[in-house]
Amino acid sequence: MARFLKDRKQTQGKVPGTLMFIGKKKVSETTADYFRYDEKTIDESQVKAPDFYWNSEEPQAGVHWINFTGLHDVELIRKIGREFRLHSLLLESVLNTGTRPHTEEIEAKIFTAVKMMRFDDSKARIVSEQISFVLIGNVLITFQEEESGIFDAVRVRIRENRGRVRRYGADYLLFALLDVIFDHYIFAVEEFGLQIEDLEMEVLKKPSPQVLQKINLYKLEINYLRKNVRPARELAVQLSKTESSYFRKGTYKYLNDLVKNATQASEVVESYAAMLTDFLQVYHSSVTVKMNEVMKVLTIFTAIFIPLSFIAGVYGMNFEFFPELKFKYSYAIFWVIMIVISLIMFRYFRKKQWL
């Protein structure tokens, strides 16, 4: 399946809001992790998603975080949508794992979709997972493609009551989770950047076809990073400027910090993209210089052998009367002349710094 754009042939002719999973099944069954917490208490449970029940009519105290892992079961996602009264267009974006990172408000619910990026050192490539967020008052719902453990640090902070997360609302929890994802952007870029920087010496010293293959591979990966980091920065800016009642004033300073992280990641991606472009130019320049050196040597050898070939051609003609042919030392003189001419031309080329 294409990385830059998912195959959407199956959606052709469908009504907008039609629920259809677009992506690759990554888990065998969908699970639900549930947290309910406030400053003093915490409840935590994990169940199979079909067994999860939510009563939207009953007032819910504290902050509620429900994390669903696995998006392949369309009917289950539809059931979750009914329980939380989620619009079909919102659920459609959740099921489309190729959706562009963005945020929007649909029927008094803040929907946010981003890509979690990490560098897979064994494959030397960027791998991603789509994560969607739905903020409804004091309830935050997250949808993941697979269990990656990316939010484990936030879970530990909730369990051990570290930092501000237990004292703040679901809007701060949304920031904390996005902050983890944006930090991973920087980690991924840094790890990938080490690979790019190590390539510099290979480009300068050994501009081989294998090096060219690496440059093209890394350009593909950096473009994939750029495709997701740029809109993620736009998303952060949009969140920092939102006027939704779900965001408290105290949360905005943290959202502004999110913009800084996203901007930093975006700028570093652009720097490495420019570096790879420079590497490609250096590679082609090095290959051209190397080829010119080879051509210069071949040309010099050709130039040296032109007069020698002329002499050999003259004395190779089958004339009966050739004055020098009967001379006793003709063969030795012939080689002396050849060697002297070669040395003179070689010295001349060295003086002109052509060699």
Instruction: Let me know the largest β-sheet.
Output: 7 strands, mixed
Spatial arrangement of strands, main beta sheet: 2-1-3-7-6-5-4
Shape designation: rod-shaped
Task: Give the strand tally.
Answer: 7
- Helicity level, as a percent range? 40-55%
- Rounded Rg: 34 Å
**Category from helices, strands and their pairing:** alpha+beta
Number of domains: 2
CATH superfamily of the largest domain: CorA soluble domain-like
End-to-end distance, in Å? 54 Å
Verbal overview:
The chain is of the alpha+beta class and 355 residues long. The protein has two domains: 9-285, 2-Layer Sandwich (Beta Polymerase, domain 2), CATH 3.30.460; 292-351, Up-down Bundle (Methane Monooxygenase Hydroxylase, Chain G, domain 1). The chain has seven helices and seven strands; from the N terminus they run βββααββββααααα. The chain has a seven-stranded mixed beta sheet with strand order 2-1-3-7-6-5-4, sandwiched between helices. α4 (170-205) runs parallel beside α6 (249-314) and α6 (249-314) packs antiparallel against α7 (330-351). The longest helix has 66 residues, at 249-314. The chain is rod-shaped, with a radius of gyration of 34 Å. The mean pLDDT is 84.
Q: What is the strand and helix layout of this fold?
A:
Blueprint: E1 31-37, E2 42-48, E3 63-69, H1 74-84, H2 88-95, E4 102-105, E5 110-120, E6 125-136, E7 139-144, H3 152-159, H4 170-205, H5 209-240, H6 249-314, H7 330-351
Parallel strand pairs: 3-7
Antiparallel strand pairs: 1-2, 1-3, 4-5, 5-6, 6-7
